[in-house]
Amino acid sequence: MGPLFKQQPKVTAPLRSVQRLSTKKKQDYFWAYLFIFPTLLGTVLFNLGPVLYTVYLSFTEWGAFGNSTWGGLVNYKKILNDPVFVSSLKNTLIFTVLSVPLSIALSTVVAQLLNQQIRGVSVYRTLFFLPVVTMPAAIGIVWRWLYNADFGIINYLLNLFHIKPVGWLIDGNIALYSIIVVAIWGAIGYNMVIILAGLQNISPQFYEAASIDGAGMFTKFFQITVPLLTPTLFFVTIISMINALQTFELIFMMIGPDSLVIRDTQTLVFMFYKEAFINNDKGYGSAISLVLFLMILILTIIQFKWQKKWVHYS
Question: What are phi and psi of 62, to 5 degrees?
Fold first, then answer.
């Protein structure tokens, strides 16, 4: 008979294997964190740091010579009673509500047309995309000349039809809408490229099956193209809304801070720039920027919620 209790086998080898594996994982983590450390450090210093400092500044009051003191909610109370802020908020919302849907609608139509097999389609795509690679300052200067009330090309063409000159940028009633036209023109190229990529991902078999069933051009567009293009349109809507709410360059270049119609055209970002860097009230300017940030955040969350609900019921 053998022994009553057999000798248990040694487990030294498996333990060493596990230990080696654990050591290798530690080395992998070390090198991974070492490689991402420069990017992480840059993100903290140049992104997170300024955000936290802006939050701090929004609770401070600034004097005439750059001295700041803790003011608590003074700046936020000032926002609630500031008619200039209300006017800037109104201009921002008008700019966003008009420019975003119109630019996306026109971009979708242009993308649909440029998705066809036509001669010279690459040239047309390049021409529509040119405003995207052009500096906003250059666009603002060129359109400012086009809109000039005395010697602008647009008023010259209107004069050929015996129409009186229009003060596109000096009339407070239409100056904002003139800038919206330029913003829509400049956004079509970027949106068109993204929507065109979404269109090219739609299988031609859907359109072939619809043609067999006798579907027309508009039926194919609204029953096939639009539903399958929804994720792309949602992305474009989010990006366009955020860009519209942060509009600054066109207003700065086409109107300017000293214009008589700046009150009728300035957005929240322009008001932030004026308060923080012209009036040197960085506390109030920081409060305005945080309010704009919260507004963008809330609107984006609402759009995500709406998108999920729309997909669920569609």
Answer: -110, 135
Place of tokens 């400049």: 186
Closest CA to 136 of 191, 195, 187, 193: 187
138-157 burial, b at 16+ Cβ within 10 Å, e below that, comes to: ebbeebbeebbeeebebbee
Tell me if 195 sits within 8 A of 232, measured CB to CB.
Answer: yes
Q: Taking the model in full, what pTM does it have?
A: 0.84
pLDDT band, residue 255 (cuts 50/70/90): very high
Tell me what pLDDT residue 5 has: 47
* Residues pairing with 70 in the sheet: 60
Rounded Cα distance, 276 and 66, in Å? 11
CA dihedral sign of residues 183, 184, 185, 189: positive
3-class DSSP state of 69: strand
Backbone angles phi, psi at 210, to 5 degrees: -65, -35
Q: Are 282 and 306 in contact (CB under 8 A)?
A: no
Residues in the chain: 314
Token pair of 34 as six digits: 């070492």
Contacts of 126 by beta carbon, 8 Å cutoff, 6+ apart: none
Alpha-carbon separation of residue 239 from 65, 88, 246, 303 (angstroms): 39, 21, 11, 11
Residues 199-231: pLDDT tens digits?
A: 999 988 988 898 888 888 888 888 889 889 999
SS3 content of the chain, % helix, strand, coil (to 5): 75, 0, 25
Helix (H, G, I), strand (E, B) or coil at 217: helix
**Strand, helix or coil for residue 37:** helix
Burial (Cβ within 10 Å: 0-12, 13-18, ≥19) of residue 256 = middle
In angstroms, the CA 210 to CA 91 distance is: 44
